[in-house]
């Protein structure tokens, strides 16, 4: 049987009406607000987001993954509005979320910040509500093991870089080994990609070499990320072959700056001793106000690694 995983990222939800005055914001938030007013508000709008929710309901994936940047400034009102949006997206056991750099623009107490999204960021073995934050977290869904990392850390002005840290890497390595022994399809979720992309070091994952080394030693079947707002298929070395690393544009982009909104539907099924990963792209069409199919490809992943894209 095929298990379907939807991936979307960087929705940058429009600012709610009850935002604090500019003089109540910190410098990094002020800069983000100016960026929103100057350009992002024209790109990220509610129209593609409503179409996205309708398309997800129509496609009915088994699980959804959201790889960060739900908000823009990380103001408390934004975090609360994003929780309401997550409630519309799906029940916490059907939606897995990792935070992005905009979600942690400035340091914030757990209950006022991303802790408001805690039900969607709770591992299967984690304590219940109110417990201290825990990254990474592990979820098993069907044949998938979702290993969810946080690369979101507050950074100085004009930087949008991320960091995982040694403790997360250590735990992720243990889970990669364990879930490989259990015969699961291992999906790593992270906001910042473990490869250099647009923006260079200013926007990069600072310890990407550590994560890439971990994947080279222990392997994974798939890495999903966001951050750069562009479609990208790359590969990292694994212990027996290349590991696909897939990124997406913003899920709310109604203008092609740099790309229109897109999400991916990944179908995972057994293929002999390995796996077959079929990815279908769903792209926003401004003329119709709907998401439409925009191509698909297949990767065959076995002990020798992915065989390469095919139709």
UniProtKB/TrEMBL annotation:
Family as reported in the entry's similarity comment: Belongs to the cyclic nucleotide phosphodiesterase class-III family.
Give the Pfam families listed for this entry: Metallophos (PF00149)
Q: Cite the SUPFAM superfamilies for this sequence.
A: Metallo-dependent phosphatases
User: What Gene3D superfamilies is this protein classified in?
Assistant: 3.60.21.10
Name of the featured protein: Metallophosphoesterase
Q: Which UniProt keywords apply?
A: Hydrolase, Iron, Metal-binding
* Entry keyword annotation includes Transmembrane: no
Instruction: Provide the Calcineurin-like phosphoesterase domain boundaries.
Output: 5-230
